[in-house]
Amino acid sequence: MRVSDYRRKKLELYGTHEFFRPDHAANSALRLLATRDAMQDCAGWLSSGNTVAILDGCLVTKEQRREVFEYFTQQLGYRILFVECICEDPAALERNYQEVIQHNVDFLGMDPSLAAEDLKLKVAHYVHAWEPMDEKNYPRITIDTVSLEMRAHKITGHVETSVLGYLGSVTAKPHTLYFSRHGESEYNVIGKIGGDAVLSARGERYAQALATRINSMKIPDLRVLTSHLRRTIATARGIEAPQEHVAALNELDAGVCEGLSYEEMQEHYPQEFAWRDQDKLRYRYPWGESYVDIMQRVEPVIAELQQSNNILVISHQAVLRCLIGYFMDKKPEELPYMEVPLHTIIRVSSCGFNYRIEFIKLPIECVNTTRNKPVNCSANRTDNDALRTVPAHYDIPDPWRNPGNGPSLVQQH
User: Which of 91, 200, 285, 398 shows the smallest number of beta carbons within 10 Å?
Assistant: First the structure.
């Protein structure tokens, strides 16, 4: 929870840096109320069964930190970890100022030179009020956001050590990442999931078009990551950049349902198919994986992407949903239904604290593989209800190579 968002709810229009003067009692009280609102929502998030809540705010005084510590630790019984970010590099600070001015809603419509002056005066108020974080009983991590040097104090347990590892992979420098699914595969054409299918004729055309587009962009120091499966490796073949094949980027393992169409899943495993529709995020195929498993599997990839620039990841629908969803701050329940279309380059660029996403569709036709959640997810639903949102597909793997076989389009109604 960002305290600044709660402050804007109480004071929609940002005035000037004067609002952050530590000696202005009324404004200080208003900022304190915003912090307390955010704290209460963090507590509500934790009490509803979640493991971690993040309170994002400038707790620059010992009194501010004491209130947060006592509220969560002594009143509610939670473990609290402070993360202190330090930056004393003038060039990095200036770069950060420019990003804040460009992307922070407080400065929308403000003259850039006036915004820069106002922001520096706002920071000066915080510097004036700042008291060193030297409280001996507070678990904390102090990180230099330029050198990424870290100091840890009283860190214990799995969650806190995981946070320490996560912070070691973060960079404050602007960066751009590129993503693409493999070209259309023969399994995509006939509506089957999983497997290690080869590209269709249209998928091969996309691989050529992708290589032409990426090579023409002259992306400096580009690296390409693919899964171990044939369709991603073939899609990357013509790209002029170092390539690595990463097992963590393999598609979600559908277990006993590997290589089946949705129609076949409904025929052979109707109960499993209904359970999947009821909770697609947590549903695990028999002898296979769930989206939650994918989220855990790609954690090392996310750590690498966070500190990298100009990487192209060629992977699969479920995996890219988890990767892109992470950077776009999607809720876990949103991931299984994110649009990650075939034959599209997806560019994700850092913009201050957030990321901007762009879809670059290449003009190669392909099937649609996105299946929306059906209205009826009960185990006793009819076949028609279960298959209502299945995307259209063909009845042979590559009708463009086999025009004489009389291919037909399979469409649910």
Answer: 91
